[in-house]
Structures are given as structure tokens and as C-alpha cells.
Amino acid sequence: MKEPFSDLFKDSNVFADREVLSPHYMPEKLPYRDKQIESIVRFMTPSLRGERGRNLFIYGKTGAGKTSCVKHIVEKIKGLPTMAKVSYINCRIYNSRYRVLYKITGDYLPIYAKRGYGLVDIYEKIINWIEEDGKILIVVLDEIDIVKDLDDLVYTLTRANSDIKSGGIMIVGVSNKISFKDDLDPRSLSTLYENELVFPPYNSTELSMILKERAERGFKKGAIDDAAINLAAAISAKDSGDARLALKVLSKAGELADERGDGFVTVNDVNNASEAAEEELVYELVNTLPEHQRLIIYAIALLSIQGSRYKRLSGDSEAYLFSGDIYNKYSAVSKSMSKNPKSSRWYRKYIFDLEMQGIITAYESGKGIRGHTKLIKLSYSPDRMKETVEKTLSADSEA
Ligand SMILES: Nc1ncnc2c1ncn2[C@@H]1O[C@H](COP(=O)(O)OP(=O)(O)O)[C@@H](O)[C@H]1O
Ligand SMILES: [Mg+2]
């Protein structure tokens, strides 16, 4: 019998440093993001010079490099001789006004980051600290849409600027959801959107380059070739232009090669890995969605599966669906599960969110048979999406 754990610390045949391929690894260089980094720095320049800059809102799809760029800049600023201070805040963890203020206190006033201090206390500590020498605080709120009481948070941070006699606070919000705007108070909205910057998704050539740089350090010499890397890039570019997915495919392909043990990652490994990576990614994506967004995905999957049967007969390969048909199917599906379908206004918002997260692709039709309408399809295989939603819905009903 094989010893359990015997493989655990075995040297890898293909990996030189697995960590380099992990999504948490911070690469030194961020190719194709010079322009975005430059813009962010430009928007921050007044703050870095000691005058409060206008707030900035950054958005773009998952895996477009937003977090990496912002963190990169935050690190650089920490080394600059500037009066500005930055707090990088991951709102997945710090998801309320209190927690965000608490995190800022933890970063710069740790003696007050103890339990027992209320919101007003820590707010005042922060204000006093800013006023001490008129410093500027740049608050970076990554995945800002997750903050539960965002209106309150924006209000408090903005309000601080009028309470402060010298110095101030600049907000940098980062998000891959754009329709969350609709739920915000118009005042918070115009506050956040003083400036706006969009990150486009990566194309296949760009992903290839990004992967090559990572592969060079992550894999042993000669363990992977360009063909395998290009394929991983092409697969991810086709789905979403998501660099995180591309990296996931690559490291999974490495694992498969390692298991086989011949020391070389093949194109076949990449193909197999992309199946597995996609499955994992789809599950992660779908699992965190609100129920009605999952039901919409379910409706699209059902229609696509039916449609593709019809299309196989007719030989038509175009798999886009009409938005209105999806809404009808979604309503029917909801009712069959004894759930109240949301209004079509909500539905359009949800569609927009799903699009921003790269789960669906959509485009506006020109003036055609049905006038102006949105055409929509899933970014991942309908069968897989259907299966995943079923899994998450049954997990919900057990909980
Ligand atoms: N230009 C780039 N160069 C190198 N790696 C990148 C680049 N853009 C993204 N990545 C990598 O892709 C992954 C996802 O990027 P991330 O910044 O988290 O995207 P986002 O925050 O937009 O979802 C990370 O592992 C990151 O290192
Ligand atoms: Mg991010």
C-alpha cells in the first residue's frame, strides 16, 4: 500500500514555484496595464501632493487586473515621501461602514482598533488623526458593491471632508458590478463618480504574454511550451478575457502533468484542465449569486439546450437568445418553483450584472424583426450551467 501523504512533499516534475501561478501572487510587472496605472496615479496626484483629489470609480470584468493594479499602486505610494496615507480595503471582508472605519483605524491607529469603540469614537479618532497635520487619506474600497450600507459609508467619508479643517479623504471604489449604482442614493453616486476608469478585458494575445511571464517562473525549464500556453490563453479569452481563469487553467494543467509524471505539460493537459477549471469557476461564480440571478441563468440554460436541439436540425449555429424570451422563461421557472418572479426592470438590472461578471455575453440587436432588443447567451456551456444552478438551489433548500 502507498503511504498516505507520501506525495505531499514530493518534488514536482513540472513546477518550479507553484505560488507564482496562484491568483494571490503579486507579479512585479503588469503588462498591458500601463495606461490604467498611469491614469489612476494621475487621478491620485492631487492627493499625493496634499490636496484632496476627486473621488475615483474603477470598474471592469472579473480578472481584468483591477485589484492587482490598485494594490501595486498602493505599495508604491507607501514608499513615497508624501503626506498621503492609503488604506486598501477588501470589502469582501470589511463589508460595512463600521468595518471599513475599523480597518482604517487598524492600519493607522492600532491602539484604537480594539473592541468596545463605537462608530462615533473611531470616526472621531480618524478625523483627529487627519487634522493633526492636514494629511490626505486615500481609501481604496475593492469590491465596493459588497458593502451593505454603502450609502452610509459614502456619506460618512464625504461628510468627514466638511468636518475636517485641514486635509481630507479621497475615495477610490473598485467593482465588477455596475448595476449596483441603481440601488445607491443619487448623492452617493455622484460622489463616487467624480472620476471614472474602465478596465477592458484581456484579449488572447495579451493573456498569452501574461501567462508566459508567469510560466517562466512558475514552471521548470522546458516543462511547458508556447503551444500549451497559447491554448490556455485562447480558451480564457474566448470565455471572458479573465486572467484569473487563464492562470487557473495553466496551474491545473501543470497538476495533471505532474500526476502523469513525464515532466511535460501538453496541449491535451490544457484542454482537460480547462474543463475542470471552468467547472470550478462556474460553481464559484454561480454559488455566490442571488437566487433570482441564478434562476435567470437557469432559464437561459434551458432555452439554450432546447434551442441547440432545434439548431442542430436547422444547421443554424448562432446561439444568442432574445432577452424577452428569457424573461418569459424565467418567470415560468420561478412560478414552477413557487417563487415570485422579479419585475422586468429588476430583470434588466440582473442581466447587466451577469454580463459584467462575464457569466453571459449580450449585445443590442440593430433594428431587426423585433425592433431594439438585447441578444444574450451564456459564456459557459449551458449543460454545465444548468447542472450547477440545480446543485446550488438544492443546497439552498437544505440549508
Ligand atoms: N496585466 C497583468 N499581468 C500579470 N498578471 C495579471 C495581469 N492582470 C491580471 N493578472 C493576474 O490575474 C489574476 C486576476 O487579476 P485581478 O487583479 O485579481 O483582477 P480583478 O481584480 O479585475 O478581478 C491575478 O492573479 C493577477 O495576478
Ligand atoms: Mg478584484
Characteristic key phrases:
399 residues; alpha/beta; Helicase, Ruva Protein, domain 3; Rossmann fold; Arc Repressor Mutant, subunit A; 5-stranded parallel β-sheet; 3-stranded antiparallel β-sheet; 14 helices; binds adenosine-5'-diphosphate; binds magnesium ion
List the helices and strands and how they pair.
Blueprint: H1 34-48, E1 56-60, H2 66-78, E2 85-90, H3 97-108, H4 119-133, E3 136-142, H5 150-163, E4 168-175, H6 186-192, E5 195-199, H7 204-218, H8 226-239, H9 243-260, H10 267-287, H11 291-314, E6 321-322, H12 323-336, H13 344-356, E7 360-364, E8 374-378, H14 382-398
Parallel strand pairs: 1-4, 1-5, 2-3, 3-4
Antiparallel strand pairs: 6-8, 7-8
Helix pairs in contact: 1-2, 3-4, 5-6, 7-8, 7-9, 8-9, 8-10, 9-10, 10-14, 11-12, 11-14
This protein binds adenosine-5'-diphosphate (ADP) and magnesium ion.
How would you characterize this protein structure?
This protein has 3 domains: 18-23 and 202-287, Orthogonal Bundle (Helicase, Ruva Protein, domain 3); 34-199, 3-Layer(aba) Sandwich (Rossmann fold); 291-398, Winged helix-like DNA-binding domain superfamily/Winged helix DNA-binding domain (Arc Repressor Mutant, subunit A, Orthogonal Bundle). 53% of the residues lie in helices and 11% in strands. α3 (97-108) crosses α4, α5 crosses α6 (186-192) and α10 (267-287) crosses α14 (382-398). It has helices spanning 34-48, 66-78, 97-108, 119-133, 150-163, 186-192, 204-218, 226-239, 243-260, 267-287, 291-314, 323-336, 344-356, 382-398, and strands at 56-60, 85-90, 136-142, 168-175, 195-199, 321-322, 360-364, 374-378. The mean pLDDT is 89. It is built from 14 helices and 8 strands. With 399 residues, it is of the alpha/beta class. The strands form 2 sheets. It has a 5-stranded parallel sheet with strand order 2-3-4-1-5, with helices on both faces. Strands 6-8-7 form a 3-stranded antiparallel sheet. β3 (136-142), α5 and β4 form a beta-alpha-beta unit. It binds adenosine-5'-diphosphate (ADP) and magnesium ion. Residues 66-67, 142 line the site of magnesium ion.
